[in-house]
Amino acid sequence: MSTMTLRAAVVTTLLAAGSVLATPAASAAPFDLVGWATQGGGTTGGGNASPVTVSSSSALISAMQSSSPAVIRVSGSIAISGMQKVAANKTIIGVGSGAAITGGGLNISNVSNVIVRNINFRGWGDDAINVQYSTRVWIDHNSFSNGNDGAVDVKRASDYVTVSWNKFIDHDKTMLLGHSDDNGGEDRGKLRVTYHHNWFAGTNQRHPRVRFGNPVHVYNNYYAGVTSYGVASTMEAGVLVEGNYFENTEDPFHRGEGSSPAGNLVARNNHFVNSGSGDAGGSVKSIPYSVTLDSAASVKSIVSSGAGTGRI
Fold it and tell me: What is the annotated signal peptide range for this record (predicted)?
């Protein structure tokens, strides 16, 4: 048996046993789906549907609002207005590094099984991606810049979501999880999201800001020059913050935010460069899936070379 084959066999065995592995930079996590979006039956989007390529707003909207499963390839830059509905069982994926959706955003509402990958979102007026009352959603390898309000907001009883390998640039309210303190009747037991290998470059707040979700998993992200705060756990939330790289970020994570009371936050194995030490406390429910955890010190190089569009 070769060394590579032997190592793969060992990794497979350990993952099957539920171990979380720390890997060196040379073996960065692959771009496959992991985390909460693998749960509840998994997330396949349009599955094996024959891909359709769109290059206009009318074609994009028609394809993503179809009642049939679809794999939609976005070619070039498409301007839309407002928040456009995305129907269930859809994969929306950009072609190359230049695919863009500008001016408006995607509303993933009251649906399940949606994948959004490799899109540049710019200049949105409300949210770039809004997920509400939806389950099994994967948001991966997109880039977000120069928009209004939230870049990726997940709220209102949504569940089983993974947000991975995205790049957020010079934005204020990056990612909200749970929209209000008085929505516990819908949100308790839900809002379970994994955030991993995202790159926050000069962003301000909400990376993410969490209510009610427990456990929420924030691992192997690169925080570069975050100006207000990184992660906030509030209002009955339980957030595991592990293996992240915080650089020039005075407030990497804390409990409570604004008028929202403190939630629970467990921090472990993070790497800090010219950054604060963070505020952690309480306990968090156990993570039900296995991941390959990159060593925190290697996250900057891994994420900066792998996050955003044009990598898949």
Answer: 1-28
